[in-house]
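Good morning,

Attaching, inline, the backbone tokens for the sequence recovery test we're adding to the shared suite. The designed sequence is right after.
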């Protein structure tokens, strides 16, 4: 695999770390800035809002720029905003800085996924995208715990300065390793901003985005309340939760790599398999949470099943908007964060209704089933439109059209 993927993974590692580290530092931030914990929680929402707004906006306004330049500029904004977070004198400053930190998130992953796919042969695209996202999953295993420990021992501001240093390393890596022959943002037929916006008028693109919202909404319906499940249902001590969350990161890393490898063989097959696995794991959560060791297994399997769908979903959005993939790819990251907020809200409704501490996982199973249904509709639309993928030579996939009603849809 090209070394340029390492540069993209370093950027993904930094972004993943800054996204999730605030959860572990909220009590320290609240005490230092003299605000309540619920008020400090708005910092998490501000970041997510920045992602949702920034993903399509920045991808659109940079549509005619060099992708290499776009990625470096996005990481520069990342460094600047995290440095602002470290210097924040009050909660209003920090709220604005966290919003700015979220702006480059979706666009970086969106544009980066397009670049990663273009760095390799067509039959290795999904694997290439998964290697870029490896930085995000490894951040949950290494980056977030390390930054949290740094913040707890040196002050929360030190954690954000550390994240800024990671961003500087990413800028250097992108400038050094990303080849200039991958630099042009314009895709033939894309037509810059107008072409990128036109891609969002496609029904298959919206069906792919809908699958992301439902599928990852299923994950966050359960994961947002994983700590009380582990303590109240499985009987773990609160001090053990951090280690168990690291198991989720390990599962996510494995799922991401396996999903990328299998998606190169069958994109739809991997997507359907991941969603079915997610339905099963979440439906079994109440049973698995009855003992300590099965609860640990459940957390690991949750990460594996959910992130196995990441690469095929990203690649599907890009292929459905093949003439102008950057905006659609970035919009998929906005969909991911909408899933974060929506899944957590739905899971919270089940708790508020008194259905029990593991009820968010059951709600998540329902959302995963919905995602499976949307994916099935997307498949049916492709069949109806006569979209197929045939093999041309060993392992090489080529898009084609077949008569309506044909059963030869390979992916």
């Amino acid at each position: 695999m090209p070394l340029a993927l390492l540069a993209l993974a370093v950027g993904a590692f930094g972004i993943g770390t800054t996204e999730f580290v605030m959860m572990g530092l909220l009590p320290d931030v609240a005490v230092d800035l003299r605000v309540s914990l619920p008020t400090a929680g708005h910092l998490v929402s501000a970041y997510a809002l920045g992602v949702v707004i920034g993903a399509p906006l920045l991808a659109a306004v940079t549509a005619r720029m060099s992708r290499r330049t776009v990625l470096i500029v996005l990481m520069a904004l990342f460094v600047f905003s995290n440095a602002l977070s470290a210097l924040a004198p009050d909660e209003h400053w920090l709220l604005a800085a966290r919003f700015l930190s979220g702006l480059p998130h979706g666009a970086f992953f969106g544009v980066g996924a397009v670049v990663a796919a273009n760095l390799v042969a067509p039959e290795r695209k999904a694997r290439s995208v998964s290697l870029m996202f490896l930085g995000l999953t490894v951040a949950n295993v290494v980056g977030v715990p390390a930054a949290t420990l740094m913040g707890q021992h040196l002050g929360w501001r030190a954690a954000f300065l550390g994240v800024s240093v990671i961003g500087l390393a990413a800028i250097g890596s992108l400038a050094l390793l990303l080849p200039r022959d991958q630099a042009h943002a314009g895709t033939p037929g894309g037509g810059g901003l107008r072409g990128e916006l036109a891609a969002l008028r496609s029904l298959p693109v919206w069906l792919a985005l809908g699958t992301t919202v439902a599928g990852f909404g299923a994950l966050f319906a359960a994961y947002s309340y994983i700590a009380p499940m582990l303590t109240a249902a499985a009987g773990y001590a609160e001090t053990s939760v951090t280690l168990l969350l690291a198991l989720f990161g390990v599962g996510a890393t494995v799922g991401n790599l396996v999903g990328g490898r299998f998606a190169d063989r069958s994109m739809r097959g991997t997507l359907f398999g991941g969603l079915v696995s997610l339905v099963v794991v979440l439906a079994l959560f109440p049973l698995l949470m009855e003992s300590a060791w099965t609860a640990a297994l459940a957390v690991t399997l949750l990460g594996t099943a959910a992130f196995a769908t990441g690469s095929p979903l990203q690649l599907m959005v890009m292929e459905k908007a093949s003439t102008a993939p950057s905006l659609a790819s970035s919009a998929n990251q906005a969909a991911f964060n909408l899933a974060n907020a929506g899944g957590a809200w739905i899971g919270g409704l089940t708790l508020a209704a008194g259905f029990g501490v593991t009820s968010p996982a059951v709600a998540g199973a329902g959302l995963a089933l919905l995602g499976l249904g949307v994916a099935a509709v997307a498949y049916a639309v492709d069949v109806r439109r006569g979209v197929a993928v045939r093999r041309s030579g060993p392992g090489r996939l080529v898009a084609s059209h077949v008569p309506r009603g044909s059963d030869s849809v390979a992916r």
